[in-house]
Amino acid sequence: IIKSLVDCVSKGGNLLLNVSPNAYGEIPREAANILEDVGDWMAVNGESIYGCGLSDLPRPECGRITQNGNIYYVHILDEFIGPITVKGLDKKSVKSAVLLESGAEVTMLNRWVTLNFPEYQYMSFAPDEFGTVSMPDNRDTVIKIAMCDKALV
Fold first, then answer.
1. What is the pTM for the complete model shown?
2. Long-range CB contacts (< 8 A, 24+ apart) of 80-85?
3. In this predicted model, what pLDDT tens digit does every residue of 74-130 receive, in sequence order?
């Protein structure tokens, strides 16, 4: 449901979810568990959904992007190898990039290989104590990218 919600919002849509009670007028426990899980995710990541819509950036390989004004929310829905890439981001105008869940800074990479692909912004999470880079939330990890106001650039 989270992936469907993000997919819908990233395309400018609105998701309507219908949950039906059973013959006794009760919401099935399985459905309630799923809705609680979605509610927990929304409590942390709701700002990437509410008031957001279609992004003016192309869809990244790892998931979707929602946008609210000069803030992009990169939704990482799929496992990936290497850095996260976002096409079309003006690197000079990025004010900040953080994990929405924790506020931890996301590293913007500027290695020699990235210079060959100026239309892409490369980002990475900090590795854990074993050197492994993994998504903090397997359902949907959200990176919040705040851009400078165009008038200030």
1. 0.88
2. 83/109, 83/122, 83/123, 83/124, 84/60, 84/122, 84/123, 84/124, 84/143, 85/60, 85/61, 85/120, 85/121, 85/122, 85/123
3. 999 987 777 888 999 888 889 999 999 998 888 888 877 777 888 888 888 766 555
- Cα–Cα distances in angstroms (integers) from residue 60 to residues 28, 120, 140, in the given order: 36, 10, 14
65 in Cβ contact with 72 (< 8 Å): yes
